[in-house]
């Protein structure tokens, strides 16, 4: 009888402890499935009809979780992988989008792992979500965005240690270092500081990447300024990248205009390049412009349909493309354009 009572007490205690632990922790699976049909044309490379993944938001799935450690301290993790919905494939690096573990508290957040760089975070508030044929992402981190250097940190970096400021009356900030660990182009240091309050969201960011002992550092700095004008959001980004003597200055403006159950998207970018040799695509005459227009119609809180048209006009030897990387056969100075119709589901 005593053994039975002891066993019952032990199992009750274990169940209580287990329930308490579960009550203090949570794990969430999340994702986006986004696929579109359309056609792109890239100068001499010709036209291609295609089914494409991630044209309004990058298709992805992931796991994130948080554990309450007590005393205002929490532990968290975030794992996120890209999905090619059109082909059923995953990125070559499985958790390519993000793989981090964090400690959070009143002091802010300390985050370690593979993450977006502060300069990249400053580009995300784009009217097109920095993806698709109409987005400014074509220039922010498309082909040639590292100016031909070895820098791999235009969007994300491996081996990072990051610190995020706690909430301070609208002020936010992110500071990050990435260890090179013998990989040329991954040693990075950067930071971002901003303010969001009322109709204004403004932030500045700077980052520097070592590209090798005998080459100059790759530098990137930008300023984001978004403004709510009634229901309309105005999007502005001035983004400068330098790898001496090459430099590109991108000025983007755009708008998200609510309309019924959806929104109209408009965007424009001018990419002013300089410093490179004639014919390199980074010379003084190798400039490009982007024009995007689209409409998103919300069928529910989680599902929407959209259509987007984008056009990139190149000069000189520039070969920017709505495909983000110019296809073989496209010549310098040629125009790239694309039209897409897609559906996006968030879970």
UniProtKB/TrEMBL annotation:
It is found in: Cell outer membrane. The keyword Electron transport does not apply. GO terms for cellular component: cell outer membrane; pore complex. Keywords: Cell outer membrane, Ion transport, Membrane, Porin, Signal, Transmembrane, Transmembrane beta strand, Transport. Pfam families: Porin_4 (PF13609). GO terms for molecular function: porin activity. Residues 1-23 form the signal peptide. It is a multi-pass membrane protein. InterPro entries: Gram-neg_bact_OMP, Gram_neg_porin_domain, Porin_dom_sf, Porin_Neis. Homotrimer. PANTHER family: MAJOR OUTER MEMBRANE PROTEIN P.IA, PROTEIN YDDL-RELATED. This is Porin.
């Amino acid at each position: 009888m005593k053994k039975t009572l002891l066993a019952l007490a032990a199992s009750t205690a274990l169940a209580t402890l287990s329930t308490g632990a579960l009550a203090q922790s949570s794990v969430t699976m999340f994702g986006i499935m986004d696929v579109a049909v359309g056609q792109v044309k890239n100068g001499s490379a010709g036209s291609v009809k295609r089914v494409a993944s991630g044209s309004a938001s990058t298709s992805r799935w992931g796991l994130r979780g948080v554990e309450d450690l007590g005393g205002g301290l929490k532990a968290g993790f975030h794992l996120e992988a890209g999905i090619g919905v059109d082909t059923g494939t995953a990125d070559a690096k499985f958790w390519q989008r993000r793989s981090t573990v964090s400690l959070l508290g009143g002091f802010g957040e300390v985050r370690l792992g593979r993450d977006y760089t502060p300069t990249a975070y400053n580009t995300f508030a784009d009217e097109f979500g920095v993806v698709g044929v109409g987005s400014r992402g074509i220039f922010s981190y498309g082909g040639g965005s590292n100016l031909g250097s070895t820098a791999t940190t235009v969007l994300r970096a491996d081996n990072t240690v990051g610190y995020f400021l706690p909430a301070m009356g609208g002020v936010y900030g992110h500071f990050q270092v990435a260890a090179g660990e013998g990989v040329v182009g991954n040693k990075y240091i950067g930071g971002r500081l901003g303010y969001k309050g009322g109709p204004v969201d403004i932030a500045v960011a700077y980052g520097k990447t070592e590209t090798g002992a005998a080459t100059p550092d790759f530098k990137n700095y930008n300023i984001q300024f978004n403004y709510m004008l009634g229901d309309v959001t105005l999007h502005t980004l001035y983004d400068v990248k330098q790898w001496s003597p090459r430099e590109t200055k991108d000025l983007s403006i755009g708008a998200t205009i609510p309309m019924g159950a959806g929104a109209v998207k408009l965007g424009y970018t001018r990419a002013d390049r300089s410093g490179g040799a004639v014919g390199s695509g980074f010379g003084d005459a190798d400039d490009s412009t982007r024009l995007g227009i689209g409409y998103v119609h919300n069928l529910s809180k989680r599902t929407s349909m959209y259509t987007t048209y984008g056009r990139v006009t190149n000069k000189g030897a520039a070969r920017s493309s709505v495909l983000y990387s110019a296809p073989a056969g496209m010549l310098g100075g040629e125009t790239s354009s694309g039209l897409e119709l897609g559906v996006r589901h968030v879970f």
